[in-house]
Amino acid sequence: xxxxxxxxxxxxxxxxxxxxxxxxxxxxxxxxxxxxxxxxxxxxxxxxxxxxxxxxxxxxxxxxxxxxxxxxxxxxxxxxxxxxxxxxxxxxxxxxxxxxxxxxxxxxxxxxxxxxxxxxxxxxxxxxxxxxxxxxxxxxxxxxxxxxxxxxxxxxxxxxxxxxxxxxxxxxxxxxxxxxxxxxxxxxxxxxxxxxxxxxxxxxxxxxxxxxxxxxxxxxxxxxxxxxxxxxxxxxxxxxxxxxxxxxxxxxxxxxxxxxxxxxxxxxxxxxxxxxxxxxxxxxxxxxxxxxxxxxxxxxxxxxxxxxxxxxxxxxxxxxxxxxxxxxxxxx
Length: 332
Prior knowledge:
By secondary structure, the protein is α/β, with parallel strands linked by helices. The protein has helices at 59-66, 89-95, 116-126, 135-145, 162-174, 192-209, 220-226, 244-249, 254-261, 268-273, and strands at residues 9-22, 28-43, 48-52, 74-79, 82-83, 99-102, 180-184, 212-217, 229-234, 237-243, 314-317, 320-322. The strands form 2 sheets. It has an 8-stranded mixed β-sheet, with helices on both faces. A 4-stranded antiparallel β-sheet has the order 2-1-4-5. The chain is globular.
C-alpha cells in the first residue's frame, strides 16, 4: 500500500469502559458501562466519515476517545502511524495540533469570559505556531475563513447567535491547521436554516483545506448531505459501514433500516404512504448487554441463533460491511 493510500486515522478494536462501583465505605467493582466496545475504523485522507446512531450508542464517547479526552480501555487509536493510546504525554501533545474537535453545544464549548480573539488566539500561543505580533492577523484570517467579520474579535460569546458561536468554535479548531477534525453533532443545537450553513461551511473547508472529517450525528439526512461513507453504531459497536449512498439508499442491517425509516420525507403524499419501522422496547443497558447480537431483542428479523451468536462486522459487498447473520437476506 502506498503512503497516499494509508489511512490518516485508524481505530483498531477500540474499547472504552467506565467502571461501576457499589458500596459507601468499601467500594466494590460491580461491572462496567461498555460505552465503546470494539470499534475498528479507518479514515482516508480528505474523506468525510459520518457516524450515526441513536442517543446513548457511544458516538460522543468514541469522539472523546479518539481525541484522548477520555482514555481508551483497550485497542489502539493511530494517527499517521502514531499510537495515541500508548504514547507518552509529550508525544500526544506533539500531535494534538493535527487532531482537533468541534463540540456539540456552542453555548457550552466557548468560555464566556474570553473574547473571540482570546478564544482563537489561545491555541496559537500555547503551541507557539504564531508570534505575538502576528496573532491578530492570523485570528482575522481564521474569522474570515469561517464567515465572521474580523471587527467582532473583541466581542464575547453571549453577543453572538448559535450559528455564529459554532463558527467561532470551528475557527478555533482550524487555528493549528489540523489534518483531522472530529465534529460531534455540530449542528444539532442549531436552527434548520443555520444547520445548512454550517454543513456547507464544513464541506467547503474539507475541499479547500484537504481536511479529513469524522462527522457525528443522529440525523441520517444531515449525514447524507456531507459524508463519503457512513458508519452506523449501536450499543458501542459498528453494525454497518459503507458508502453513504449505499447505506442510506440500500440499508442491509435491520437497525439501519429503522433509522432510515424515521427520516421525514418532504413530499406529504409519500410521507403518508410509506411504512415506518418502529422498534419495540428500549436500547439495552451497556452495563449488561444481551448475549449474542445486542440488537436481537428489538430486531424484527431475529432468530434463535441471534440470541447466542455475536456476528462481527463482515464484508458483504466490496465497499459494504454489515454485522448481521441475515444481512444477505435483507433488501430495502
